[in-house]
């Protein structure tokens, strides 16, 4: 039994905390990341890198704070110690999370953190800025110093995952795959999408995450809309089901889509499902170190174009890129899309999710993730076997 036949209470009662836990990122790895960032600054011709609150600050320091109107930033200097800029009243909270050895510069609510920064960084300092830095803060920094885009350093380091990062992603993917499997078991005629979404969130919590980071449950014609429709559907017999969801483990994301038949599905849908599976396999087979990201999108899209779909983003066909990077962000660079010529490198991680949309009728989306290896690619999760057998 893979689809239907159970209920939410039964499935939740049999779930427990994940036993095979990956180790959290440790202080030594974070400090090595800072050293590697320092070693990359010469190539940009800069003296320092400013990393703002958000996923990159977590990457370098362990601090999990999100951006706000108050400046919380890490300044990594090419020569010398790094500095954390933080509101003074937040120092105790900062100390509880900060996982690297840095000097802390604290400011009061009525003080300007940019002025504080200027007290120890001369005006000739050349800055590389976090690409996710708020525009207004970037403008203020640019008014005092010569600034450039720091994406080459930050995204370059974050793109290739360490063994510890890969283990965390692997655990998150395995947890979500198990939640997806349990969600398929609770399906029945009349169940609402919101009921399935609530179960998926509770199941993610039951296995040890903080819940679903996102969840999209679509039935029938709604599967033709890549990110769903804004109303609560009821499942009917003989409909296509599409569920896309994920969670995080120590900040690292999972993201899996399963698309399968609830009852009898027409031969035209089955044929499109098989074609989508072929496109996903073609993308995976094209992965090799040194190959540009764009070539993976080309590989998937060419399968669909050869079958008469598209071309390009025309429908029926594939309306979006083949994949995105994943890690501390659900979507992060580089991307498997036309024009992204970033060479694939071992440790990079991507979604593989070509989608076929037949407007106003149905959509097929199969999504698993892979890591680039020295010889090709390796799946984090086993792709779906068939439209009737969503799990291995």
Automatic annotation (TrEMBL):
Residues 168-374 form the Peptidase M24 domain. PROSITE patterns: PROLINE_PEPTIDASE. Keywords: Hydrolase, Metal-binding, Metalloprotease, Protease. It comes from the Bacteria. Residues 33-160 form the Creatinase N-terminal domain. Pfam families: Creatinase_N (PF01321), Peptidase_M24 (PF00557). The keyword Metal-binding applies. Belongs to the peptidase M24B family. This is Xaa-Pro peptidase family protein.
């Amino acid at each position: 039994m893979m689809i239907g036949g159970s209920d939410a209470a039964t499935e939740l009662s049999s779930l427990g905390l994940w036993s095979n836990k990956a180790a959290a990122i440790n202080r030594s790895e974070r400090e090595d990341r800072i050293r590697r960032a320092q070693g990359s600054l010469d190539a940009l011709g800069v003296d320092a890198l400013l990393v703002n609150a958000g996923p990159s600050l977590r990457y370098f320091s362990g601090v999990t704070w999100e951006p706000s109107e108050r400046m919380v930033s890490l300044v990594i200097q090419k020569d010398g110690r790094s500095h954390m800029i933080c509101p003074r009243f937040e120092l105790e909270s900062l100390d509880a999370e900060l996982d690297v050895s840095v000097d802390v510069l604290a400011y009061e609510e009525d003080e300007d953190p940019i002025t504080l920064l200027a007290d120890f960084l001369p005006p000739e300092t050349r800055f590389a800025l976090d690409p996710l830095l708020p525009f207004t803060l970037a403008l203020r920094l640019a008014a005092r110093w010569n600034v450039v885009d720091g994406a080459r350093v930050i995204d370059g380091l974050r793109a290739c995952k360490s063994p510890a990062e890969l283990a965390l992603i692997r655990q998150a993917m395995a947890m979500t795959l198990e939640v997806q499997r349990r969600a398929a078991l609770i399906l029945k005629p009349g169940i609402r999408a919101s009921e399935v979404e609530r179960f998926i969130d509770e199941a993610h919590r039951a296995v040890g995450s903080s819940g679903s980071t996102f969840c999209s449950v679509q039935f029938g014609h709604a599967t033709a809309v890549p990110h769903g429709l804004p109303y609560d559907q009821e499942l009917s017999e003989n409909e296509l089901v599409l569920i896309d969801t994920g969670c995080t483990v120590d900040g690292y994301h999972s993201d899996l889509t399963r698309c399968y038949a609830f009852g009898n599905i027409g031969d035209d849908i089955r044929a499109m499902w098989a074609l989508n599976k072929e496109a996903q396999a073609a993308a995976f087979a094209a992965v090799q170190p040194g190959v540009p990201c764009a070539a993976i999108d080309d590989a998937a899209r060419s399968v669909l174009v050869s079958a008469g779909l598209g071309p390009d983003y025309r429908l029926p066909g594939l309306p979006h890129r083949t994949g995105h990077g994943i890690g501390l962000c659900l979507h992060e660079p580089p991307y498997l899309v036309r024009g992204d010529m970033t060479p694939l490198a071992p440790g990079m991680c991507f979604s593989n999710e070509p989608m076929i949309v037949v407007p106003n009728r149905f959509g097929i989306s199969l999504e698993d993730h892979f890591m680039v290896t020295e010889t090709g690619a390796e799946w984090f999760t086993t792709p779906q076997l068939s439209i009737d057998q969503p799990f291995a």
